[in-house]
Amino acid sequence: MANNKRTLGSVFKGIWIRLLSILIPFTFPAHITTMLHRLRGVNVGKGSKISRTAYIEDSEPSLVTIGENVWITAGVMILCHQRDLKHYKIGQAVMDCPLKTAPVNIGDGAHIGIGAILMPGVSIGKGAVIGAGAVVTKDIPNHSIAVGSPAKVIKTFQ
Question: Would you say domain 2-156 falls under CATH 2.160.10.10?
C-alpha cells in the first residue's frame, strides 16, 4: 500500500511539473516565470530571471540550482539527463541505453546567452558569461567568458 501511495505521489508530481512547464511560455513578466520554475522544484536564488522560452529539466527539475542575480535568456536548455553511451554497440537502439542524471549548478551573477545548452553535470562559475548558442559540456570557472560548441573559455577576468 505504501508503495502505491509513493507511485501515485510521483505521478501527481510529474503531472504538476509538466502542467507548469506548459504554462510557463505564456507568462509575463520574468519574475512570474521564475516563480513558476520554483514551484516546479528548480532551486532559484534571489534576483534571478528566467526567460519564458528557456527549457529547464522536466524529469527532475530539483537537480538544477541557479544562484542569485542570474540571467537565463531566451531559448536556453538546461538538461540533467542524457543517454549513457559507454556500452553502446552497433545495431543497438540508442533508446535502449540507460539514462544517466547529474545536477547542473549556475553560480551567482552568471549570464547564460540566447540558445545556450547546459549539459548534465556542469557547473557555471560565479559571474561567468556563456555566449549565445554555446554547448557547455564541462565546468566553466568563475568570472570567465565561454563560447562555442563545445564551449571553450576565451577570457577569464582577474
Answer: yes
Distances in Å between the Cα of 23 and the Cα atoms of 10, 35, 95, 129, 140 are 20, 12, 28, 28, 31
Spatial separation of the C-alpha atoms in residues 89 and 101, rounded to whole Å: 21
Q: What is the pLDDT of residues 35-88, one digit of tens each?
A: 999 999 999 999 999 999 999 999 899 999 999 999 999 999 999 999 999 989
What amino acid positions are annotated as catalytic residues?
81
**pTM summary value:** 0.91
How distant, in Å, are the alpha carbons of 110, 112, 155 from that of 143?
8, 13, 9
C-alpha cell at 18: 509538466
| Residue ranges of domains in the chain | 2-156
